[in-house]
Amino acid sequence: MSRMATKHKEAWKTFAQVFDRFTELAIHKLISKGVIDGLMGHASIGKEANVFLAQAKDRTVIVKIYRLSTCDFTRMYTFIRTDPRFPKLNRQRRKVVFAWAQREFRNLMKAREAGVRVPTPITHINNILVMDLVGDAMPAAKAKDQLPQKPDAFIADIIGQMRKLYKAGLVHGDLSPYNILNQHEKPVIIDMSQSTTPEDPNAKEFLERDAKNIAAFAKKIGVEVTADEILQKVKA
Ligand SMILES: Nc1ncnc2c1ncn2[C@@H]1O[C@H](COP(=O)(O)OP(=O)(O)OP(=O)(O)O)[C@@H](O)[C@H]1O
Ligand SMILES: [Mg+2]
After folding, report:
1. Which of 65, 108, 116, 203 has a Cα-to-Cα distance from 20 of 20 to 30 A?
2. Into how many domains does the chain fold?
């Protein structure tokens, strides 16, 4: 058996232990459609999603699978209900998780179109989102783990990305050095499932929290900028 096949088999074993039949079928659909050849292994197990690396012909992509069972459903429902783009969502677990994946797809697409540095979304099906890998064969490190060599430029770049996002009608909502990857000394923003439009009653609080988190990160790496200054620049 080739090394790749062994890898696939191991990934599949982990996968089968964690996911339901429903998700398994969706993965098979992605394979039969030719979006991916197969899962290669876990990149991360987060609060509500498992992130896999997957082979797609000659490249590696990211498959983010929102768990249908062990997710914080109440949190998801609370934070999608106020998004004007999802007005008629009822409290059906599966539908909410699917909407959550769709929302991240739409947010990434919108961000991408506005020229914000985010992974390009490829497709979504049910609770699964496929997107470009940020990194060379392996995921790039989080900014919190790989601190920038030029802190001033890095922070200015993040604020510039926040501004573009805001102008495009989106607030990230969970921005921090955990959700910013350092790819060749450039910040790439990820994890946009909770990102929302300015009309969302949570948007103001989200933006202020994002600014606070970035100000705290700036301080940590020796850059002087307050949350208020960040907000001013984003809204300018
Ligand atoms: N497009 C991508 N390219 C490279 N790595 C990625 C990509 N998307 C996600 N990752 C990796 O997977 C991790 C988890 O992804 P993400 O933050 O989107 O999910 P999450 O469920 O919110 O996880 P957490 O609870 O850890 O925040 C990221 O921190 C990153 O290491
Ligand atoms: Mg995250």
Report:
1. 108
2. 2
Same domain for 158 and 120?
no
Query: Cα of 179 to ligand 1 centre, how many Å?
Result: 7
Note the pLDDT tens digit of each residue in 105-164: 999 999 999 999 999 999 999 999 999 999 999 999 999 999 999 999 999 999 999 999
163 and 120 in one domain? Answer: no
Whether the CB of 162 sits within 6 Å of ligand 1: no
* Whether 158 and 127 share a structural domain: no
My answer on whether 127 and 164 are in the same domain is no
Task: Spell out the residues 6+ positions from residue 146 whose beta carbon is closer than 8 angstroms to its own.
Answer: 140, 182
Q: To test ligand 1's pocket by mutation, which of 79, 190, 195 has the most ligand atoms within 8 angstroms of CB?
A: 190
Encode pLDDT of 24-74 as tens digits: 899 999 999 999 999 998 888 888 899 999 999 999 999 999 988 866 788
